[in-house]
Structures are given as C-alpha cells and as structure tokens.
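Why predict the complex rather than its parts? Because the way molecules touch one another can change local conformation, and only a joint prediction can capture that. The input here totals 273 residues.
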Amino acid sequence: MIGAVTILLAVTALVLAAWCGHAAYRDQPTKDWHFIGMAVVSVLGLVQLAVGIVQLARGEKPDQGTAIFVAYLLGAGLAVPIGAFMSLAERTRWGSATVSAAAVVLAVLEVRLFDIWGGTGG
Amino acid sequence: MAETTSGTGRDDAAGQPAPGRRLALGQGPGRLLVMLYGVFTVAAASRSIYQLIAQYEKAPLAYSLSAVSAAVYAFITLSLVRGGEGARKAALVCCTAELLGVLTVGTWALLDASAFPDQTVWSYYGAPYLFIPILLPVTGLLWLRRARTDS
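Output of the joint prediction:
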C-alpha cells in the first residue's frame, strides 16, 4: 500500500515539476490551475502520511528505522505546500520555478522513502 | 552588471537603497535560493542531529561536519530572508565558506577515505545530492553580486 502511494506521489510530483517549470520557462507566474495541481499533490502527501502512520501503528517496521521514516514522511508532506505559499508571495516566473524545485525535492524524497520502507513490502 | 567594482563604496548615496527599504535578497530568483537553502538546512540539520545522537561513534568527524554545514545553510537562509546590505555581506562570506567547505571536504574524503567511514552532505562534492551542494554556493554568490549592482 505505502509502496503504491509512494510511486504515485513521485510521478505526480514530477508532472507538477514539469508543468510549473514550463510556466517558469514561459515567464509566467503560477495560476489557479497550478494551485489546484499543488493541492492534489499536497492531499496525496497527507494520504501518504496517514497510510504510513497506520502501517506503523499496525506494528510494521521500515527497513531503515522508524524515526527516519517519519522524518521523511513529514518532509514529503510539507515540501509542496511550502513551495505553494512561496509562489503566492512571488508573482513572477521565479514563483513558478520555486514550486517546480519543491516538486523535484518531493520526488527525491519519495525515492528515498521507497528505500527506507524497504521496496514494495507492505 | 557592467559597473566596475571600484567606485561602489558604501559611502556614495547612489549605491544605497532608499531609506526604510531594505535591499531585498529573497525576492525574484532569490526566492528560489531561499527555498533550496531552506531544504538543505532542514536536510543537513535533521540528518546530523539524528546521526550525532544515534551513531556518533561510527563517524564523529563526518557527522560534526554535517552539523557545521547545517549551521552555514541556516545562516544563509536567514540572511536571504532578512535582506539588507549587512545580510548580503554576511551571506557572501558564508557562501564562500560553503564553497570552500564543499571543495575541501570533497577532496579530503577522496584522499583519506578512512577519515570518513560515513558520508557527509559535502562528500563527493555533493554528488549524492545531485551536485546541488556545490552548485548552490556558486549560484548564491552570483545572485548576491547581482543584488548589489541592481539595487
């Protein structure tokens, strides 16, 4: 379960990164549609956090330790919302670039989360 | 950008930002830098805190250096957010220190691998972190240089 959510989040994060990167390339700030995209990714992050906590509560153990797993879960949940708020304050192409970078960070965190949990298990 | 570095002394009125308005370092491209420095502050700090507590004996030098890098990242992030000429100079010093740190630690870890049984954020010149640790100070220095001449 956590493996599937992780893969889904990594893919959607990369799509969001490409989309906002395209906006930055065209010298445009983030628009309403971008924020809807960020909201979707953020909600997925919350879903992942919930699934992760439920699996820990069931007594399953991540391969590389519970503390690291929870830290990465929290970081993954916060990356895109923080980027979104920064792009609200920065109504230029650089706001779009910031969201794009935040989404890339999220994708990297998801790859690490996948390793930390221990592959597809769970 | 074309302005020569001589003659931009702080005493000439033209080089000063308008009164009551700080030189903005965390806007435009600076906003992206704030985000990336913020990420690396959190990453390096949480990593070093965890490792210093959980496995200090394994590689004390590497973990201590990670803690130092976290402090440098935190200071630069705050300077960029705060803005102003003083913060710009402080951030210039820190970005230079950061660049030297990446180059020194990267080379040191290559030459004497036994000193580093575990990696730091700056090992292999930041390759495990997509080379961002070595690209970030260079970008930061360029931005801080430009922020002065643009004001």
